[in-house]
Amino acid sequence: MRINGYYCRVFMLFTYTTFLVLEFVTRCSAIEVYHEWHVSLDTNVSPLNVNQSVIAINEMFPGPLINVTTNDVVNVNVFNNLDEPLFFTWHGIQQRLNSWQDGVSGTNCPILPHHNWTYVFQTKDQIGTFFYYPSIQFQKAAAGFGAIRVNNRDVIAVPFPKPEAEFDLLMGDWSTEDYKISKSMMRNKDVNSYAVPKFILMNGKGPYGNNLSKSFESFTVTQGKSYRFRISNVGNALSLNLRIQNHEMLLVETEGSYTNQIPLDSLDVHIGQSYSVIVTTNQSEADYYIVASPKLTNTNDSSNLVGVGVLHYSNSTKGVTGPLPTGPDPFDVEFSRNQAKSIRWNLTAGAARPNPQGTFNVSNVTLSHTFILLGSLEEISGLPRYAVNNVSYYTIGTPLKLADHFVNGSGVYQLDAFPHDSVNANASYGISVVSGKHKGWAEFVFKNKMNVMDTWHLDGFGFFLVGFGDGDWTPASRDTYNLVDPVVKSTVQVYPGGWTAVYAFLDNPGMWNLRSQILKRWYLGQELYIRVFDADPDPAKERPPPENLLLCG
User: Fold this and answer.
1) Which fold has domain 165-342?
2) What are the Plastocyanin-like domain coordinates in residue numbering (predicted)?
3) Of the candidates 129, 132, 165, which has an alpha carbon nearest to the alpha carbon of residue 149?
């Protein structure tokens, strides 16, 4: 096979749940990894003693781990055994020059029931902790998610000693209703009363000690070693605080960025966010609680909304004891914001490339765009809708990227009709697509006037997280920005009654989705698309459509 202009030899490896073809490189910088996924509704893998169908992949919940290295090429052949169309999106994978593989409604045609389609994407110039999930039809509420690890190449030094082992911890809120019932409830005017989570799961398992849990998550460790935990909040509604009884966590990475290494007793992980922490097993041989509790929610130790797992020392002869470790006040927004501000970019570490992360920074950039975006709950034609600047995104049958390719968007969407820095007087539907200047610096200000947490995610890029604030944002707020060492992430939280500001370098041509990561907000229209266009037809600038391109609309 030809990769990057070179021919490479092929070796094959078969596993029980996935079919992998590893193309070891002679003069190539990439390995090709092949997965075959069969996606279906499955009651056998439901996490609780409740009759509930779960979206499983190869009869697994969570789905198979995608474990790759910088620049690898990932092929995922998805067989859709559901009764409705299906997408998968690869949260945090930037799909360099290739938004065709992004797996959202604006870029792809869905995989129809009883059909299959193969995603092919490269983890180009990335390392870090990510995850995947279905992106339409409210399917994420029924699972279908799994972990993605992008490891450093051997030639790149990692800024911490190699751990004894790595663990993936996918935690998130969970509702016991069938996801189609939850989806239908989104048409009710009192939308905030529906699809309310009932449990917190860890790796698809219920809380330890809960009568409804079929099993609980446990990680076996050896005393005196260090372990990397790759943590993602894969939930749909609730920010979580994570802590491990009697153990400190050393923060080292978030969503592809190495961070300054700070010790933490607990870590806030908001919807859609991922982190890596190092845990050193320096306590006596015993079992210890791992706890994930929701932010901005009242709970107690026996609540179903407290996720509980176990850190099990291999020579332990006794189970967990004592009360659950206490965390910060869940309503203490200032604690959470201060913790977020303390997470800075490690300027001296290399990541996907040998040069230090800090060689690319925002200390002296010229902004080409400012987008000021307010998410809100509105009513349109008697139905509840979430909106951005009073425009609720209306999903059409023709993917925007497809229309862009064939008819330059004509008759499908109107470019830049969306109010990018103001709020329309009245709420309405719209097909929101804005221009992003190729290789320009964009400033995004996310505003949240509601009394609940919000998170925003941008496909295709990383955000430089330059600032948080209370109240309204004004141009003078830029004086408070951190332009020295802001961490780079793809998902950022916006605190109630506050704002969050980020910078992004728009060097990745394509049609890119910007959305609330809170599931019901995303489903009900709190999203838009950014069209980053480079007129040069050279495929080195942007990839042409894949050979297996699906047509629809």
Assistant:
1) Immunoglobulin-like (2.60.40)
2) 43-153, 169-316, 400-534
3) 129
Give 500-528 pLDDT, tens digit per residue: 999 999 999 999 999 999 999 999 999 99
Can you tell me which residue has the tokens 């802590």? Answer: 243
Residue 115: pLDDT over 50? yes
Q: Is the pTM of this model over 0.85?
A: yes
> Could you say which of 2.60.120.200, 2.60.40.420, 2.40.50.140, 3.20.20.60 is the CATH number of the domain covering 367-533?
2.60.40.420
Mean pLDDT score, 115-143: 97
CATH code of 32-151, in short, is: 2.60.40.420
For residues 463 and 502, is the Cβ–Cβ distance under 8 A?
Answer: yes
Residue with tokens 């169908």: 53
Q: Which residue is listed with tokens 């506050």?
A: 498
CA distance 436 to 459: 13
Q: Looking up tokens 């948080």, which residue turns up? A: 468
Q: How many CA atoms lie less than 13 Å away from 65 in the CB half-sphere?
A: 15
| Paired sense of beta strands 199-202 and 257-264, if any | unpaired
**Phi, psi values for residue 489, rounded to 5°:** -140, 165
Between CA 32 and CA 416 the distance in angstroms is 38
Interval 223-235: pLDDT, tens? 999 999 999 999 9
pLDDT, tens digit, 9 for 90 and up, residues 343-368: 999 999 999 988 999 898 899 999 99
Task: Collapse the DSSP code of 226 into the 3-class scheme (helix H, G, I; strand E, B; otherwise coil) and give the result.
Answer: strand
* Helices vs. strands in the chain: H and E counts, helices first: 4, 36
Sign of CA dihedral 441, 447, 453, 457: negative
Which helix H or strand E contains 404, and what residues bound it? helix 400-407
Please name every residue paired with 528 in a beta bridge, in sequence order, or none if there are none. Answer: 514
Three-state DSSP at 172 gives strand
Both tokens of residue 474? 């004004």
